[in-house]
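Progress report, Aim 2. The chain analyzed during this reporting quarter is listed below.
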Amino acid sequence: MNDWINSLPDCLAVEMRGNIAVLTLNRPEKRNALSDALVLGLQHFFDSIPSEVQAVVMQGAGGNFCAGLDLNELQETNITQSFHTSKIGQRLNDTVQFCRVPVISVLTGAVIGGGLELASATHVRVAEPSAYYALPEGTRGIFLGSGGSVRLPRIIGASAVIEMMLTGHVLDAQEAHNRMKLSHYLVEEGKGFDKAMGLAEKITKNAPLANFAVIQAIPRIVEQDPAGGLFTEMLMVGIAQDDDEAKRRLADFLLHKQGKVSKA
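Predicted structure tokens for the chain:
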């Protein structure tokens, strides 16, 4: 475990709280903008989560989640180099979405561009009132490149993504939560981390294979035709219920229920 944590760059900080890994994007002076080192560090983190970890809570240091790409590192590139850069970002967010354990993000301050793409890859999003969201790529002559054009329309709708990219419209926390359903929870200022930890603790009480099945299967099922989705669902039912932990939990539930019935 220590070797895993020590292998990460200084722009990431990890603290273990039981079986929950608290991951902090640690470039507060840059509003946690995505530098090459930060992207590669995140890739390594999510690629190599140890078996002891059952959930991840991801946050940004200094009051901002992530202000997008570090524009100081952007250079004039040809098409081949742009493809490579985009592939790295897409691979990272695919790894976040389909990593071994659920990921809960705490959204504060800037959640912009690549930062919003990263947030959209997490499984549960907890926002504070300070959070604001934007896709300024259109105004900067660039395009979403880390999977956001695939994920975000499925969360807030294609029309909203187009409008945000064309106009630079900034969503505040209330609009993003109430109208766009971008966050799952909107809590009081300063309460995001505690809420995320509470959710993570609840999630880690589930059977690990059940959590894995949920985050791996459902995003794929919604992309399938109905018949294919139903078949995948049947497969996941068999896999999940064949797990020893699931069998133990079901037996405990039935015994508990029988006990209540007999007492009545």
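The beta strands are 12-17, 20-25, 55-60, 103-107, 110-112, 124-127, 132-134, 171-172, 185-186. The radius of gyration is 20 Å. These observations will guide the mutagenesis work planned for the next reporting period.
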